[in-house]
């Protein structure tokens, strides 16, 4: 599973700008919202788009889910719990890279 997590993380780092929002809370919110929505799309779960944020996360998640399905054929070997494990692993990895270990000192400035 770790290789799959790294493969999806690398895809996101190459193609998705939402991981680079200017504040740590923005990054955390985007990673949580988009990856959760991506998991629902990949698992064929029902999606309720109630808020504008839900719709924004859905649009990014739809693109990401399509890219994962197109470029990673091993995805279709995973059951629903495997997809959730993959998504949770990618979330943790992205939070580590884009928030916790980021060298961008402006991420946590309160006056900016």
TrEMBL record:
Keyword annotations for this protein, in alphabetical order, are: ATP-binding, Iron, Iron-sulfur, Metal-binding, Nitrogen fixation, Nucleotide-binding, Oxidoreductase
Q: Source organism's superkingdom?
A: Archaea
Is Secreted tagged as a keyword? no
Enzyme class, one word?
oxidoreductase
- EC annotation? 1.18.6.1
Coiled coil regions, renumbered to chain: none
Report if keyword Oxidoreductase is assigned: yes
Q: What's its catalytic activity? A: N2 + 8 reduced [2Fe-2S]-[ferredoxin] + 16 ATP + 16 H2O = H2 + 8 oxidized [2Fe-2S]-[ferredoxin] + 2 NH4(+) + 16 ADP + 16 phosphate + 6 H(+)
Single GO MF annotation? nitrogenase activity
Name of the molecule in the record? nitrogenase
